[in-house]
Design goal:
30% of the residues lie in helices and 20% in strands. By secondary structure, it is α+β, with helices and mostly antiparallel strands. The longest helix has 10 residues, at 62-71. The two termini are 40 Å apart.
């Protein structure tokens, strides 16, 4: 099918993915049964992931934090974050003090190595 598309790309005037879709819908004179590999391979199954209950996020989103900061602008807020480098060689612990715009950073070599 790739050879057919490559030979007649300019005549067709459609993309490769559209060409494959049209072949699956049997809009051309040839069918999938005429193509060796198309018949040989089964269509792959898509993994079904169940939807997770995200009710634990109620009141903990960034929009909720922004609303809280509008109401309580006099409060002192410190944000903490952990950053790992590639291959977990180093780890950084950061503290951001919003009122003074001060960032404290602590780093150390990680003992845990990713595989």
């Amino acid at each position: 099918m790739n050879h057919i598309y490559g030979s007649h790309r300019k005549e067709l005037g459609i993309s490769k993915s559209t060409f494959y879709t049209y072949c699956d819908l049997s809009l051309f004179t040839f069918r999938n049964i005429d193509l060796q590999r198309k018949v040989r391979y089964k269509p792959r199954k898509k993994a079904h992931r169940p939807t997770l209950d995200q009710s634990y996020l109620n009141g903990r989103k960034y929009t909720d934090f922004k609303e809280f900061m509008e109401v309580n602008s006099d409060k002192s807020v410190v944000e903490m974050d952990v950053v790992e480098t590639i291959k977990c060689e180093r780890v950084f612990l950061t503290f951001f003090f919003r009122k003074t715009k001060l960032i404290l950073l602590s780093s150390w070599k990680s003992k845990i190595r990713s595989v």
